[in-house]
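hey so i finaly got around to running the thing on Acyl-CoA dehydrogenase family protein from Streptomyces sodiiphilus. pasting the sequence first so u can double check i didnt mess up the copy paste, my clipboard has been acting weird all day
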Amino acid sequence: MTATPPLDPADLLGLDDLLGDEDREVRRTVRAWAADRVLPHIAGWYERGELPQVRELARELGALGALGMSLEGYGCAGASAVQYGLACMELEAADSGIRSLVSVQGSLAMYAIHRYGSEEQKQQWLPRMAAGEIIGCFGLTEPDHGSDPAGMRTRAERDGSDWVLTGRKMWITNGSVAGVAVVWARTEEGIRGFVVPTGSPGFSAPEIHHKWSLRASVTSELVMDGVRLPAEAVLPGARGLRGPLSCLTHARYGIVWGAMGAARSCLETAVEYSRTREQFGRPIGGFQLTQAKLADMAVELHKGVLLAHHLGRRMDAGRLRPEQVSFGKLNNVREALEICRTARTVLGANGISLEYPVMRHATNLESVLTYEGTSEMHQLVLGKALTGLEAFR
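ok and heres what it spat out for the 3d tokens, dont ask me to read them lol
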């Protein structure tokens, strides 16, 4: 008879049993990099509202194989969806801004080129992006069109064999440090994607300041003022909104995992704090109300990780649907934010201090809650799946 293994308080459901040796090695490698290169500095970066040495960090992440991690060929690692998810979880356990850097690079900019680009575009951009030598960004959201990208005003018009691109994009991660932008624009043929070198005349990317969330992340506006592009700049395989929305589905999958990393960091902080913080003559972890909070946080964390694993297995099997990714993002980000808020109450006043990661994670997740599809939009996606009736308008 096999002996029951001892209980690991950090893995109450024994979810490590779902991982193979290669999966664990990916997790260990990314966790070690984040511990060395991010965690000692992140509170200061967040407080100052900066991500210094972002290009150096990108090259290091490229050396780890974390950029375009689940893509095949062109210098990409060709990792499984589960392994990519584990990497996202470890990166966001450090900070959502670091995971956003990787997610936008790999799951949006590189994914768009990999899936919809010409062979020439793939050869030109993907190897250097996979190595972190070039940073990419993804221009879909506009100042007046976030949840409704079909209303975009950015236009691309033909001028001979060239395209001329005019418009603005907003809240673009990596924008001002990117060497290439994938920009979506309205044309006479419908919505098309364009690969835009950011050094093109008429292109600028002013950085957005005064953020109280994702402060250790580069966020910019993209301004295209008559940017002239050759015919081969268009992504030949993408027509209509299906192209950019499929990229967002891939990126949202990473968020399903990443949000659980932020939640895990907050739970671990709360558990450790409860063991050492004394009130009324004993550690607060010995009080029933504190234990109830910790138990509820642990339940939601492990449910969320289990959900992420399930979606990852479906993606690896080619069976993952966009509605299922909406399910994951809606649940996991919402629950991660609640875990962060509850952890803050366990830490009391110390919960708002940058000496602890809790408030930083909570404020970051306020952005994660609404970017790449607000909770309301994902509720409507699931509502349509349940009823067959569209309620977006």
